[in-house]
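Researcher: Here's the sequence for the chain we discussed earlier.
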Amino acid sequence: MEVSPDDLEAHLLTARKAAQQAGEILMRYLHEGVEIRSKADSGEGAYDLVSDADLHAEQQIAKVLREATPGYELLGEETLDGAADAEHLWVIDPLDGTNNYAHRLPHFAVSIAYYRNGKPLVGLVYNPARQDWYSAIAGGGAFHNGERVQVNAAQQLSQVLIGCGFYYDRGAMMRSTLAAIADLFETHIHGIRRFGTASLDLCQVGAGHFGGFFEYQLSPWDFAAGRLFVEEAGGRVTTAGGEELPMAKTSLVASNGQLHDAIVEITKRHWQG
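Model: Thanks. This is the structure I predict for it:
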C-alpha cells in the first residue's frame, strides 16, 4: 500500500512538531549550561561528544513520533535501534553538530527523516539557534523556511564552493580527507568550507550555496533527511565511490548533479572504503 501525499504532509508536520520541541530543549540547555562528555575516554571517541541535551531531545522526539505513528520503528544516534530496512522507520539525530554546540557556535541541527522500506519520503532539518527550517517530501521539492530551493547550475568545479566534513578519526581517514581537499583546490574551486554539521551541509548543497559536499564516514542519522533535501532540490547523492547510498555507515558525496562525477573522481581516489 502506497503512502499518500496527505500522509506524507502529516508526517512532515509530525516531524516539525518533534523538531520544534527538541530545539526548545537544546536551546534551554545551551542557555542554562550543559555538561558535555566524550563517548570514550581515549581514541577517536574522545572527540565524539554527547550531552544530556542530546539524550533529552532524543527522548522527546521519540515521544512525539510514537504518539503520532504507533508501530513505526525509530533509529537514532543515542538510544534508538530500529531496523534500517523497516517498513516504516523514523531516522533521528537529536543534535547534529555537538562539537559546535559544546563551543556555543549557533550552527547545529535537529534532523528527522521518515523512510519506508529503505526509501526516504520525508526529511526535516532544523537549526533552532537560527530558526532555520529545511524540509523535503519525495516528489514535492525542497524548501527553506517555506520557500522552494534548487541546487545551483554550475557546470565547472572552478565555479563553486565545496563543503566537507571530518570523521572523528585523526589518522588515515583524516589524511584521505586532506588529500581530497588538496586535489579539489587543484581544480580551482572557490574554496572549502567545513562547518561541522553534516545535515546542514547537505542543505547548503540543496539550497545552491555549495556545489558539492563530501565526507568519508557518516551514519544514517547524519544524512537521512539532508540526502532527500538534496535530491528533491535536483541534486545527487552517492557514496564517495559513486555507488548507491546505503542506509548504513558510509562515505558520502552530494552535489548539484552536474559536478558529481568530477567530485567523485577525486573522492574515490583517496577513499579508504
